[in-house]
């Protein structure tokens, strides 16, 4: 493990064990260790796992799945999206093993593109990654604010019982409060955060198990296995009749859920033996999420009987399908829905943890990106406080995520475009380094301890093609006829992002951004 390398005395004096393979590799890549290397492989896994957070993604977008294809989209679409996501994860893990730095994706792009294209490649990847991450934090914390609104609505009697329906301004205030809390938590030392991260992972797993057993067993009316595994809901009220098309639109739920596992890469400078443990974190987070998520989807879908009623805005939860499922399961059996509200609180806590880890991952990305001088006011964002936490980067991420959510006051369409950047923008950033690895770097890629051997190139190509496919899929219209209100703004949002990033590069970036700068 290269223990014959004599490390400078200050490294030993700082209490960094001189034998850490991740630390040695970081030094080879030309960076000094500034963040505290304190995370085990379990902690690294926990961060990605709680950002993927099955409870968050599935709960928030269950409506989409039900509306577009229903049980068939949910149950089989999950597997389809999972299989391809795993391929993307394997490719990313292989690259992560070779370059364990907290810049993650954009650093890989620079290294894989070769000296001539490095600055441009890392610029595009980095901006897509960081904006995608901000959009993830926005959508996670906003969906928590919406869930809190539904919990309050149900606790005060439900929509049909004169419950309190918070206005969009109240929801934005909730959102701001949640973000503020996440900023405060992320200002704490990493040892504490890592404990919370592990707690989050345990909560996600236990929460899913509790809900997938409790909900179907409390429900008085259960769906048949035939319904869960074969029923296809083609009545979406959106004017779309083609079944394959409906099925593909229903994939959004699964694909949105399985995002954010680049967190393992962003936490590598704080993980012990990161060149082995970073890749393990990525793959285990995706693998375990696939299994747990499928269990959750099955459990909930067995309690679904009347799809149209669950989606209707006149039900107690105001059209929030999962909330309605939980509430009505308990209400029909016990005469009141308190148990269902408690179940929603379990989900809310998971979403809270998900947002917390999101901000952590965001701030590490901003720290690394500004350390390489790519952001305006870079020198500020990569300052580290006495606890070795990039505190300014944390609050920058909180502030931007709040601003992105303000669009929801203007129009829900604009807000949905922001959320679409969360899935597509991030996946484009995932695919870019993989694309470079199978094209420009195919000959000179030096693999780390974790590698796919001779399958690396094939797996890489499949991953790139999948990302291209979903980028097109999620840009297709979701309802006909197309009007200003029903237009899918994803391609507009992603296109604008691309234009902004490229023009910023042409106007100013190319003159001063030279790609990742080493700081030893």
UniProtKB/TrEMBL annotation:
Q: List the transmembrane segments.
A: 41-62, 74-96, 170-195, 201-219, 282-304, 334-355, 392-415, 421-440, 452-476, 488-507
GO terms for cellular component: membrane
Q: Name one GO molecular function term.
A: L-alanine transmembrane transporter activity
Q: Where in the cell is it found?
A: Membrane
UniProtKB keywords: Amino-acid transport, Membrane, Transmembrane, Transmembrane helix, Transport
Membrane topology per the entry is: Multi-pass membrane protein
Q: Which Pfam families match?
A: AA_permease_2
**Source organism's superkingdom?**
Eukaryota
- Matches recorded under NCBIfam families: 2A0304
The protein in question is named Amino-acid permease BAT1-like isoform A
- Tell me the organism: Glycine soja
């Amino acid at each position: 493990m290269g223990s014959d390398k004599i490390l400078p005395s200050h490294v030993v004096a700082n209490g960094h064990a001189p034998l850490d393979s991740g630390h040695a590799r970081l030094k080879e890549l030309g960076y000094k260790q500034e963040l505290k290397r304190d995370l085990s492989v379990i902690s690294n896994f926990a961060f990605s796992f709680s950002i993927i957070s099955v409870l968050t993604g599935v709960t928030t977008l269950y409506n989409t799945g039900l509306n577009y294809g229903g049980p068939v989209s949910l149950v089989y679409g999950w597997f389809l999206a999972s299989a391809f996501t795993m391929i993307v994860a394997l490719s990313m893990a292989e690259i992560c093993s070779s370059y364990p730095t907290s810049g993650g994706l954009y650093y890989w792009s620079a290294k894989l593109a070769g000296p001539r294209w490095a600055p441009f490649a890392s610029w595009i990847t980095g901006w897509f990654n960081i904006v995608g991450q901000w959009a993830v934090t926005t959508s996670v914390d906003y969906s928590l604010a919406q869930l809190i609104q539904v919990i309050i609505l149900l606790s005060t009697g439900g929509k049909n019982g004169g419950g309190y329906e918070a206005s969009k301004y109240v929801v934005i205030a909730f959102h701001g409060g949640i973000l503020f809390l996440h900023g405060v938590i992320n200002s704490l030392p990493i040892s504490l955060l890592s404990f919370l991260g592990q707690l989050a992972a345990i909560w996600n797993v236990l929460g899913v198990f509790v809900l997938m057993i409790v909900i179907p067993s409390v429900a008085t009316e259960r769906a048949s296995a035939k319904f869960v595994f074969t029923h296809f809901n083609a009545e979406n009220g959106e004017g779309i009749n083609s079944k394959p098309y409906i099925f593909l639109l229903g994939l959004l739920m699964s694909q949105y859920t399985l995002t954010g596992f680049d967190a393992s890469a962003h936490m590598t400078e704080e993980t012990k033996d990161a060149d082995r443990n970073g890749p393990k974190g990525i793959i285990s987070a995706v693998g375990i999420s696939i299994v747990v998520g499928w269990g959750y989807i099955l459990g909930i879908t067995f309690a679904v009987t009347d799809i149209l009623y669950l989606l209707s805005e006149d039900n107690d939860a105001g059209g929030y399908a999962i909330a309605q499922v939980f509430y009505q399961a308990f209400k029909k059996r016990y005469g009141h829905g308190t148990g269902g509200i408690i179940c929603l609180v379990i989900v809310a806590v998971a979403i809270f943890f998900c947002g917390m880890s999101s901000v952590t991952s965001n701030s590490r990305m901003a720290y690394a990106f500004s350390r390489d001088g790519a952001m305006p006011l870079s020198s500020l964002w990569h300052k580290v406080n006495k606890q070795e936490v990039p505190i300014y980067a944390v609050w920058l991420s909180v502030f931007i995520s709040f601003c992105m959510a303000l669009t929801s006051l203007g129009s829900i369409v604009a807000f949905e475009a922001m959320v679409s950047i969360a899935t597509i923008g991030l996946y484009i950033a995932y695919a870019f380094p993989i694309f470079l690895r199978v094209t420009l770097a195919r000959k000179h890629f030096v693999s780390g301890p974790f590698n796919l051997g001779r399958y690396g190139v094939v797996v890489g190509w499949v991953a790139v093609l999948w990302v291209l496919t979903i980028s097109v899929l999620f840009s297709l219209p979701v309802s006909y006829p197309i009007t200003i209100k029903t237009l899918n703004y994803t391609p507009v949002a992603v296109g604008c992002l691309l234009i902004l990033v490229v023009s910023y590069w042409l106007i100013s970036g190319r003159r001063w951004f030279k790609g990742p700068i080493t700081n030893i």
